[in-house]
Every structure is written in C-alpha cells, then in structure tokens.
Amino acid sequence: MKEFEIIDDVPFLIKGNVTKNDVFTAYTYLNSFVSFFNNPQKIEDDGVEFSIGLQNTNVESIEVMDSDDMVYFSEFFKSHYDKFNANIASLNAPKGSYRWKIINILKQNMDMVVDGDFSLLNEFGLKKEYTNYTDNFSLAFPLPQFVVEDNEGHRREVTDYDRYERYLATTKFYEVIEDRQNYFKKTVVPYLKDRKAGKVNEQMEKEYKSETYQHLYRQKKYLESIMAVKKEGETKNIYPFSSHEGGTLELDWQGERFGATRLEKVNKQIKFLDLGWSPEDFPMLDDIDAMWDEINNHKDEIATRDYLKLQGVYNKFMNTSISSIKERHKALDSIRPIFRKYNEVAPAVNSISETFEDKVKNDYEPIVVSGDEEARRDTIKKLEELSKGLNAQHRGSLKEHRDRADMVNLKNKIKETLDYLKDRGNRIYDNNRVSDLFLEIRDLADTYVKAKRHDAEERIRLEAENEEEALAEIEEWRPKTKMGVTRFESALNLKSECQAIANSFSSVVNARNDLKGFTDELIADNRKVMHAEDLILANNRFYDNGVKQIINYYSKDPMFIPEHCGENSKMYTKEQFREQFKRIDVDGISNEDFALVSYAAVMDHNTINPEDGMKKWNHKQYSYVDSFYRNRTMFTLDMALTSPRASMSKNFLGFTLVPARNRAKEAIEAYNNGDKSLLADIMAKGMEEINKECYKMGDISIQKGHNFAYNTELLSKMINFTKKDPELYAAVKERMDQKDPEIRELITDNMRLKRYLDESLDSRAKLEKAAKMKTPLSPAVKKECINKIVRYEIVAYTQNINNQEMIDTNPAVVEYRETLSDKIMHPDKYDVTMEDIHIGEQVLVNEAIKPVRQIYHRLRSQKGRNQLGETTLEITSDFNPGISERNILRDLDKLDKKISDIHSKSILEIRNKTKQVEAQVKQKNAQPKAQPKPKGPAM
Questions:
Q1: DSSP string across 586-616
Q2: Which runs of consecutive H residues, i.e. helices, occur in 56-93?
Q3: pTM value?
Q4: Amino acid 669: pLDDT
Q5: What is the rounded distance in angstroms from the CA atom of residue 11 to the CA atom of residue 71?
Q6: φ, ψ for residue 156 (rounded to 5)?
Q7: How far, in Å, CA of 465 to CA of 455, rounded?
Q8: Secondary structure (3-state) at 937
Q9: Residue 396: is it exposed, middle or buried by C-beta count within 10 angstroms (0-12/13-18/19+)?
Q10: Residue 592 — very low, low, confident or very high, per pLDDT cuts 50/70/90?
Q11: Does the pLDDT value for residue 153 go beyond 50?
C-alpha cells in the first residue's frame, strides 16, 4: 500500500468502519449533477477516473476495510475531494440558490463519509434509511435541462438556471431531500454519538423522539405535495421527467420505487411512535415487516386457517401500544413464534430473523410524546369560527373590500396562530407560545375596535350630557353597514374569547409549575408521572385514548397526570391521588389486566359498602342499589373524558375505586394460589353489567354513542383476558348460564355490533385519508367502505329509535313524566330530593328498555343478517363509488334521512300487514259458526 499523504503533519483519514461501496457512493453521486458546475466535462472526467481507480482495487465492495486499505482509500478519496472543493470554490451560482444548495447537499454527503457518520449509521442499522434518499436524489432529481422546440418542431434540451430556480420554488423535490439530510446530520448522528458514549438520558430520548416526530410530519407533508404533482406545464419539460431515462416522476417520486413506498413507511413510523416505540426500533420493525412480506409471498403454501391466524397475530402486534420495556418484550414475544414456525416455508425469513433477534436485545425505553390532538382541534375550530366574520364583504359588491392596516395585522396574526396549531410537526407545542399568540390576537382585535370607534367618539362626547353616558354610548356604538357590523362584532368576540383561550393554555403551564413539587415527590417514590399532552392519543379510533385513560386509573400502578389534578377537569386532588391511587403489589398479572379486573369489580354494587354510598347520595325514596346504578358512570366512563364532566369523578373515587382495586388484588392472589372462583365471579358479573349498559343505551350513533364504544371496547378486552385461561373462561360462562342463558347471547350480539362500529370507523378513516392524501381508492374498495358505514348507521338508527319508542310508550314512564316538572318545582310536596327525582326516572327508563328484537334477535340468524345486507344495499345503491372520496363523505352526511325513510316505510308495511291480519281474523270471527253434526252410535 502507498504511504498516506501528510497535510500539516496530520494524516487525512476517513473515520470509522467503511466499505468500498461507501466511498464509491459518497463521490459518484455528483456525476448526476455535473451540469451544475462551471466545467461539467472536467467533473465528469474526474468521476470516471475515480470510478476506474476504485474498480482496480482488490478490496471487496461490501467488506469493511482494514487499516492499510483505509489509508490507501483515504488518500485516493482526498485527491478527488480536493478537486471537488476547488470546483465549488469557483462556482458562479448565487449563494442560496437551488443550484448552490444542491451542490452543498453533495458536499455534506461526502463529509458524512469522511467524518465517520456513515460508519455510525451503519453501526446502528440506519445507513439504508439515509442512502434510500440519496439514491433517489442522484437518479431521479429534476435537473436544469428543459425541452424546447424550434420553429420546425425539433426538440432539444437546454440548460436554463433561472427557469430551474422558478420551477423548484413551486415544488417540494428539494425540501424533502434537504430535510432528510438535515435530520440525519443534526439530529440522528449527534444522538447516536451520545448513545454510543453512554450519555443519553430520558430527556434526550424524549427530545430525539420529538424531533423525529416533527421530521416525519414534514416529510409526510412534502411527499404528499409531490404525490399531487401532475406531469404538465414545466414538469413535462424538465429532465428527467421529460424522459424515461434516469428515473421518472411516476415510477420514482410517485410510485413504488420511492415516493409511495416512502410515504407509507413515514405513516407507519408515525404510528409506531404513537404506540410508544423508539426511532431506534425502526430497523427492527422493518425486519418484522420484511418477514411478514416473505410469508405473504409464500401464502399459497400455508393453510388458509393458519394464515388468517397469523394475520391476526401480525395485525395485533402492529397496533399494540407499549409504555415499558416489559410491554416491549411482551409485544415482541407475541410475534416471534410466527417466524420460527414458518422459516421453512419462507426460507428468507431465517436470515432476516437473525438480524431481528440482534435488534430485539436493545432495550429502548418507550417515551411517549404525543401532543393533545383533541385540544388542538378544538382550538383551531374555535379560532376559525371566531374570525370568520372578519372576511365579510359588502353585499352585491363586485369589488373586494380593502382592509385597513389594523385589520391586516389582526388577520395575519390569526393566520400565524392557525399555521402553528395546524403544523402536525409540532407534536408537542409550547403552551406558553400558544397563550402569547392568543394574547396578541386579543390586543390586535382591541386596536381595531378602538380605531373603528375613534371617529365616532368625538361626536358622541359632544352630544352626551356627561362622561358616564358618553362611555356607555361609545361601548354600544356599531358601524352603519352590515359588513362593518359583522367585522366589528367578530373583533369584539375575538377580544374577549382570546383572553379565555390564552388563560386555558397558560393554566396548563401553571398547573405543571404548581404541582412540580408533588410530581417530584412521586418520581422519587418510583411513581410514574405523565402529562396529558404526552398521553398516547387514539391512533385508530376515537375511543382508544379514553379507554387507556380508564385503564390507567384502575391499574396496579396508576400514572399521575397533573392536568387531571388542575382546575380544569379535576378528577382528583393531590391528597386523593396519594390515598386512593396507591400502588398495589400483586404478581402474575399485567397492569392492564389488573385494571380490567378492577373495572369489572366496580361494576358490581356488592363491591362497595352501602353505608359509604348512602353518605354520598342524597335521596329519601330509593335504595342504595338504585343510587349506585344512577351514579355509576361518574366513577367509570366519565374517567375517559377530558371535559368538565370528568371532574365528577373526584366525588366518588374513595369509596368506589379503592375497594374495587382491593377486591381485584384479593381475586388475583386467590387465583395465584389455585382458587379461581372469586375471579370468575367478578368477571362474570362485571361483563354482565357492562353488557346491560350497552343495550340500554339511549343512543349508539357514532356521533353521540361514545359510551357504547367505550363499553364494548372494555367488554372485548375483558373477554380476551378471561380467554387466556380456558378454565377461567369456562367458569365465567358457567356463572352466566346459571343466571340466565341469554346473557352470553346478548354479549355476542354486542360484540357483533362492536365489529360493525369498528369497521364503520375504519372505513370512514380510509375514505378521509384517501381524500386528504389525494390517493384515490378503487371503486370496489370505496363501495366496501360505503357498505360498512351504512350498515352500522342502519343498526344504530334502528336501536336508537326502538329504545326511544320503548321509553316514550311505557305507561310507567309516561305517568312519572306527567308529574316531573311539578316534582322539580315542589320537591317538599312530594317529600323527594333532586337525587330521588333523577333516580326515579332512570329506574323506570331502565325497566322499559329491553334488547331490541330487530337488532339482537335478527342478527343471530343468517336470515336476519341477510335482511340487514339487503337494506344496506338498498341504501348504498344510491351512492356512486365512481365519485371522489370527498364527495362520498359529503353524501354519507345525509344518511339519516335515507335510513329514516326506509325505516318509516318498513314500519308502515308492518302496520298494514298487521291490519290485514286483524281484518281477516275479525271477518272470520263474524261469520256464523257451523253447527256440529250429531254423533253416531258408538262402535
């Protein structure tokens, strides 16, 4: 090997462990961009010389080079690196131009090899994640060559840098590459260096994950923009989109070669972060996907039943949230047997699983950093509603109204605030900043209001008798035109409402600060603390997060959430958390499963001491049991909410949640000692009670039936929990059958409705996603989505209207309601309390509602399910699956009317048929009866 070159007594040496391919990749990418340089031919010649020089070496392309090879390659690379830097120095491109920035990306790519960053990425299995972008950058990036046509129709390509600058400014081709490189260089590499040095702490992990979130959402935005680019205008004239050589718009940027595949992966990675996985787990999760793809490639060699079972395990894993290392291992253990069993069927699984097993050993602590999406959505909606009036125009005017400066400033600040709130990259937004933005809107709205009033103030003061009268009239003053009044009123509303919104955001910060000492104490005591904005939010369906919130509070070791201890939606005080959410030590059961047992226990009135209940519930005429059922949601389902209603929980937790969790502990300990009877009792009763609430709900529509969704999800989890032990499951079924054989049938009915609900939610989400991403679904898929959405709406409508009819036609309910207003106005006259009044009605309503025959009984038979399918088809036949997803969603919003018409028609047909039968019976009864013939003599 040659002696390496000495520069200022320091040898130039590529850092880390690299391969010949790494060196080759680092330099040869610039060959695709020779037209950016002053002397393209010289750059191309240097590239050829570099490639030939590498090929003439005996080192294997994928082998990590030894020290002697590294010295040679470093010297070889340095000579070409110097030439490249000299070309950059003489570049005549304006600094900051796209031409200049793209050259800078090439240089940084080479620097990453020289500095050892490539080596570090490879060490952590992330090099492919980076080179996937640089490959597409070099092969399919638009270049400053445009097709032009002369007068005779001859086409040729010309280099036009000004035209190129204008084109890139209208697309996101550059941004998606630059953002990716910056993420690796400024976020990933520094973090991995700290990780390797053992310096990473929880805060650094959280920041790394947050930066990854923001990067992925930017990538999503850029890629979705590229997906929408049409091959028209300049796009069809710029190389390589003007040609199929060197990559194309459709295949590379929008197809499976890069764009579509990458967008799918970005969405999946965002989902994994929401579920609790670390960015460092991405390569391992990629291995799982690769193994599943291999199994799919050999699907025909696997029995259909076995394949469907595998698919269920895979899908469950892909939707499993984790919040601890233990849960991480449990999730990975669930997927591992699939690949062990089928590595003979799909041989490639073997090699992939080897790297998978290596990556599993790295215990990356789950750090959850989701932002509070519900608060974000509500705030955006409110600000948009408040500011709508600012855009009012003079009626009938063809001219657009020109805003005065103070109105322009107000609108710009509103836009800035909405942009910040809508930026999904800000997964954790700064509550103080949001508060400040709304205070600035308030001040600008106030400036506009004062400016508009200013002209009238002088006249009002001259005409008023005193200052007090003048101030009152100034306060009441409004512009003369309708447009002026609309804008003025909108500004006034912004002035008052923005103050309240600012306070709500700053209160989050204040709540954290006020509770900091308490949270520090809990952390010191090894208790978990999680902020509301850090909770994992519903990743798939609207009820997911609420169910997780319930499970947290009924678990062995509930997390403290400061925002639930603040002034808004206060579920508990500090003292209550200390006393009522104590950690429970019990072996052999997970946090979530313990919560399910506790929750099943709290559904049973026998769990709670009647005397404690009677102290809380102020009634005279009704029993403790009636009060229990009347108030039960306040210490169960209300804990899923973030609204003020959740604050009712703090009044009941001590005497409900504490005995429920203690009873769960007692049952699990007995179970661990071989006695399953108490656990079976708790689960059977809890599941029966939850199921009863499901069919006695007044409204199970998606918009209003949150409790139905929460209940069925909890019930489903309880069923799955008991199924883990076949003996326990059998004991639970036996208890239900002994009480009433129909209980299990009713549970099956509600699980069927849950499936219909979930499929409806998933179908609507699929349509909304396709509409948002502008990635059309096939007519067959759209038709399937429409059918599933309509099917649940029919079921929900039928149950809701039947339940309401059962209530409204029940004589006891009607009679009670006739005196209801009088009881409320004169409780002493009836010797009742308000609690009695509410309990009385609910007791009667609950007695009136029975399982809806048209739903529960019909759907048990294939004939009944076919009838539902026929009704569904009757309605969906009006929908055109050929129109856009956005228009389909618009049409689906009008479903109620169609279902109502069909329901009314069905009822009318039933009544007419009943009348016909009654008339026939009446007619038959009216006919004279034939006289019996005299009997003959006995034989």
A1: -SSS-HHHHHHHHHHHHTSGGGS-HHHHHHH
A2: 67-89
A3: 0.53
A4: 96
A5: 9
A6: -150, 165
A7: 19
A8: coil
A9: exposed
A10: very high
A11: yes
Phi, psi of 35 (to 5 degrees): -70, -10
Show Cβ contacts of residue 376 under 8 Å, excluding neighbours closer than 6 positions: 421, 429
Neighbour-count burial for 871-909, b at 16+ CB within 10 Å, e otherwise: bbeebbeebebeeebeebbeebeebeebbeeebeeeeee
Q: Is the pLDDT of residue 6 over 60?
A: no
Residue with tokens 């709130």: 421
- Within 10 Å of residue 150's Cβ, how many Cβ atoms? 8
Question: What are the angstrom distances between the C-alpha of 42 and each of 104, 145, 437, 461, 819?
Answer: 19, 19, 54, 81, 98
CA distance 320 to 548: 12
Please tell me whether the peptide bond between 562 and the residue prior to it is cis, using omega within 30 degrees of 0: no
SS3 of 331-381: the string is HHHHHHHHHHHCCCCCCHHHHHHHHHHHHHCCCCCCCCCCCCHHHHHHHHH
- Report the C-alpha gap between 511 and 517 in whole angstroms: 11
Contact assessment for residue 698 and residue 706, using Cβ atoms and an 8 Å cutoff: no
- Structure tokens, 257: 């070669």
Q: Which of 613, 614, 620, 617 is nearest to 823 (CA)?
A: 620
CA-based nearest residue to 15, from 28, 26, 2, 1: 26
Specify the pLDDT at position 568. Answer: 52
**Is the distance from CB of 711 to CB of 719 less than 8 angstroms?**
no
% of the chain beyond a pLDDT of 70? 81
Residue 639, Cβ density class (10 Å: 0-12 exposed, 13-18 middle, ≥19 buried): buried
pLDDT bin (cut points 50, 70, 90) of residue 2 is very low
Residue corresponding to tokens 């969603």:
889
**Dist CA 647 CA 660 (whole Å):** 20
Query: What is the rounded average pLDDT of the residues 490-502?
Result: 86
User: To the nearest whole number, what is the mean pLDDT of the chain?
Assistant: 80
Tokens of 586: 């019990």
Give 232-236 contacts, CB < 8 A, sequence gap 24+: 234/146, 234/163, 234/166, 234/167, 234/170
Which tokens hold the place of 404? Answer: 């005065």
| Residue 152 dihedral angles phi and psi, to the nearest 5° | -95, 5
Local structure of 149: helix, strand or coil: strand
CB atoms within 10 A of CB 55: 10
Are 544 and 317 in contact by the 8 Å Cβ rule? The answer is no
* CA 474/CA 458 separation, integer angstroms: 10
**Distance of alpha carbon 881 from the chain centroid:** 26
- For 331, residues 6+ apart whose C-beta sits below 8 A from its C-beta are 317, 320, 322
- H or E element at residue 626: helix 624-631
3-class SS of residue 503: helix
Nearest to 658 by CA among 633, 642, 637, 635: 635
Please tell me what DSSP assigns to residue 445.
Answer: H
Contact 620, 831 (CB under 8 A): yes
Q: Is the dihedral of CA 681, 687, 692, 698 positive or negative?
A: positive
Is the separation of the CB atoms in 416 and 358 below 8 Å? no
678 pLDDT band (50/70/90 cuts)? very high
Instruction: Cite the DSSP H helix spans in 397-543.
Output: 405-422, 431-463, 467-476, 482-514, 516-524
Categorize the per-residue pLDDT at 910 as very low, low, confident or very high, splitting at 50, 70 and 90.
very low
pLDDT in tens, 224-247: 999 999 988 899 899 888 876 545
| Cβ-based neighbours of 908, under 8 Å, separated by 6 or more | none
What is the C-alpha to C-alpha distance for residues 100 and 96, in angstroms, rounded to an integer?
6
DSSP-based three-state secondary structure for 155: strand
Q: What are phi and psi of 147, to 5 degrees?
A: -80, 130
CA dihedral (412, 417, 422, 424) positive or negative: positive
47 membership: H or E segment, kind and range? helix 40-55
Asked if the model's pLDDT at residue 320 lies above 50, the reply is yes
